[in-house]
Amino acid sequence: MTMKSSYLFAILIFALVFGSLNFYIGWHLWVILRAWVPSSLGWVYWAIFWLVALSYIIGRAGSTVLPGRLGTHLTVLGSYWLACMYYLVIILLLVDLIGFLDHRLGFLPEPLTNPHLAAAGVTLLTLGILVYGSWNAHHPRITEYSLEIPKKAGELGELRIVAASDVHLGPIVHNGRLRKMVEMVNSLEPDLVLLPGDIIDENIRPFLEQKMSETLRLLSPKYGTYAVLGNHEYMGGHVDETIRHLEEAGVKVLRDRWVLVADSFYVVGRDEVMSRYAGRRPRTPLSQILAGVDHTKPIIMIDHQPIDLDEADRVGIDLQVSGHTHLGQLFPNQLVTDRLFENDYGYSKKENLQVIVSCGYGTWGPPIRIGNTPEILYIKVKFTGS
Fold first, then answer.
1. What CA–CA distances, in Å, run from 265 to 180, 262, 314, 333?
2. Where is 275: in which H helix or E strand?
């Protein structure tokens, strides 16, 4: 199977699954609405339903051709629908399963078998999830870690690092949210700021239109701001342009290279693993990237995804900061991320490597978080080498 045919096959599978799940939801809603809406207006219902269900895809695909801000509005509407769809499928499957078992066993009291009561319960529960999840996504917290690196860092005894991963700047995480992030970061008076990828949510246009680079330029760490690319920068297809604008905003983007900071410690940035699908060769091995590094000094690495931890430990990385996982973003997705990654959230330690994985500041797709809280990391590092 060629790459093109594989791509088309993946699109077909996605369309079948996405379409089937939405039809399942739409059919349940129509069964309830038929009590009040004439059957002759069914086509109106289904036209509106599919417009909402496909709004995210239409908004993203048509962002460059749709008039005015229509593409943005459709994207925002569709983002909320994605979360609504996710939880409606889970809830409706549970309701159908309970209904099937009750039909066989007859264990529910008669009032609970009323379909309109069930519909009201499903609606209220879904709305409650969406309202809470939206509020939660807009109220980030500061998560603190304190750790030691048993190396000498020049004259430095300690280092205050602030990291914000997965900001996903775009039509949803807009300049106002970025300004709040910058204010939170600066309030911590960091020595070093790290941005571990997915800074921009694919489409760079909102970043430029809202002049977000001017906001990023307000970051004021003593030793600078360093970033790596995430999978969404590659998915957007504007990697070189993204790097240029981030650099203009005072953010130093590291792609499989290192810098020595204040002659005291190293910051290493690994290129996103997705780079291999964007015309670049696979990531350079860490042992090759670290050529010329003085391993007696602390080595801090940013890598968007918390992968290849054994390699990082083997070559002498002292601290790795990552993101990407969002801790699933929507409960119970963390059951999946927990299986996919050795460390999908928080602090872990191997032999000599310490790893901190953030669930991120922003959101992808649904502007909603359930089962986790957006965060900015505040990492206090003490150097204990003699």
1. 29, 7, 19, 37
2. none
Question: What DSSP letter does each residue of 90-146 carry, written as one string?
Answer: HHHHHHHHHHHHHHHH--S-GGGG-HHHHHHHHHHHHHHHHHHHHHHHT--EEEEEE
What does DSSP assign to residue 376? E
Cite the beta strand spans of 243-329 per DSSP E. 251-253, 257-261, 265-269, 299-302, 319-322
pLDDT in tens, 130-156: 999 999 999 999 999 999 999 999 999
Q: What predicted TM-score, i.e. pTM, was given to this entire model?
A: 0.91
> Which amino acid is located at 338 in the chain?
D
Of 109 and 331, more confident:
331
**Position 3 confidence tier, pLDDT thresholds 50, 70, 90:** low
Reduced to 3 states (helix: H, G, I; strand: E, B; else coil), residue 355 is strand
Query: Which secondary structure element, helix H or strand E, spans residue 61, and what is its range?
Result: helix 55-61
pLDDT at 33 over 70: yes
The first and second tokens of residue 204, run together, are 């760079």
| CA dist 352 → 75, 103, 122, 349 (Å) | 44, 58, 50, 7
β-strand pairing of 257-261 with 265-269: antiparallel
Contact between 324 and 230 under an 8 Å Cβ cutoff? The reply is: yes
Residue type at 284 in one-letter notation: T
Is pLDDT at 2 greater than 70 in this prediction?
no
Task: Say how far residue 313 (Cα) sits from the centre of its chain.
Answer: 25
